[in-house]
């Protein structure tokens, strides 16, 4: 049986996300696993620290040691506040471990410790733990079916469906049961799992979410991003291919292709925003892609101004590219409070209303009297953009122009991103000009879909007949039918 450490404290909503208004799209999970190294849990904690941007609400680690069996610890909050404590890490011995960082999947829902991954199951052939990045779009239907057949769920997570499907499989090994279970699953999944002797990695056939393979000493590593390999000194080997399942032991990597081959549709927003700029995706630097987005944006939407300023931190590379292409000086007109993580124990309503000002401050001496181009990664609800515009004008700016390093976000994501309902998305209800008026800025321009595709290396832009990426949040074209959402009344984009 796995031994589960109790949470150190109840969740108290003291962990702020990247914005104070829920006005950014958020990746919901990051996964990491390592086999064949002493103190694997410590390596996993370091890897999760590097992936903290993918989920800041909670994290968990499961390890295996021949003498102690499976051990698990799950905590709310940052990795640095929990998994750096020697007293905790000593409870996670062994040369095999996996971990997970998460955001909750439902806005406004109070998180509970039983939803924190990795999840563990005890099967007839031994125990297994699983951590999942993505979203199962038929989870409600699967859950209903499984409950009717006698399954008892312990969490609200769609990932638990995989455990129950594995439990009901008639296959003889845990990897075979996982393959069997995942054939029932729709949506996006990048999974890191473990048995007593194996580290397992698998991506859905479209490869919507990232997963990479690395090597550290005589051991092997799986991670959502390459930046987590860097922190432990691991060598990047390759991406796990869409639809690939790898079985890793101390002796090496064994590759399987259990799913019907399909044209990959990797999430293009990983390039734009989710992944860390020091990561590599598809042999491309994320930083360089974002800088190139700024270059394309300056070509498409030039404007006469005095300064190009990023909205920190995600707007920085695109702002640099915009400045380089336009010849307008780059400047840090907005300064981020780098120590903004955990806020006050009991924030008052007045403090909560300060919102963006807790995180960002305007460099008044630089901004006063200037025509300013603000470069941001996206506009979702628009509340943060309005507050930033107010701050810039309060500092004495003569003009405020927004340039957005992604197309208008007009559709929700159902593949592992925390997105507002469609009627809460500004671009779903307003034209670009109406958004400009709503934000009260002098000009507002988004990069085009073609421009974004050119920035990620597609010289001819987006192929409308067969898009090279998943761009559903911009185009409304979903590569995997969101079954549960349609049954709940969501309407797909009408055929043109």
Overview of this protein structure:
By secondary structure, the protein is of the alpha+beta class. It has two domains: 3-266, Glutamine Phosphoribosylpyrophosphate, subunit 1, domain 1 (4-Layer Sandwich), CATH 3.60.20.10; 290-459, Rossmann fold, CATH 3.40.50.2020. 27% of the residues lie in helices and 24% in strands. It contains 18 helices and 24 strands. An eight-stranded mixed beta sheet has the order 1-5-4-6-3-12-11-13. Strands 7-8-9-10-14-15 form a six-stranded antiparallel beta sheet, with helices on one face. Strand 16 (280-281) and strand 17 (284-285) form a beta hairpin. Helix 9 crosses helix 10 and helix 9 packs across helix 16. The longest helix has 15 residues, at 286-300. The radius of gyration is 23 Å and the shape is globular. Residues 4-21 and 341-349 have low confidence and may be disordered.
Beta percentage is 15-25%
Class derived from helix and strand content? alpha+beta
Number of domains: 2
Spans of at least 5 consecutive residues whose pLDDT stays below 50 are: 4-21, 341-349
Shape: globular
**How many strands, which pairing sense, and closed or not: the largest β-sheet?**
8 strands, mixed
Mean pLDDT: 90
CATH-assigned fold name of the largest domain: Glutamine Phosphoribosylpyrophosphate, subunit 1, domain 1
**N/C terminus separation:** 55 Å
Shape-level CATH architecture of the largest domain: 4-Layer Sandwich
Count of β-strands = 24
What is the top-level CATH class of the largest domain? Alpha Beta
Helix content: 25-40%
CATH 4th-level superfamily of the largest domain: Aminohydrolase, N-terminal nucleophile (Ntn) domain
- Round the Cα radius of gyration to an integer and report it: 23 Å
Q: Largest beta sheet: what is the strand line-up?
A: 1-5-4-6-3-12-11-13
Number of helices: 18
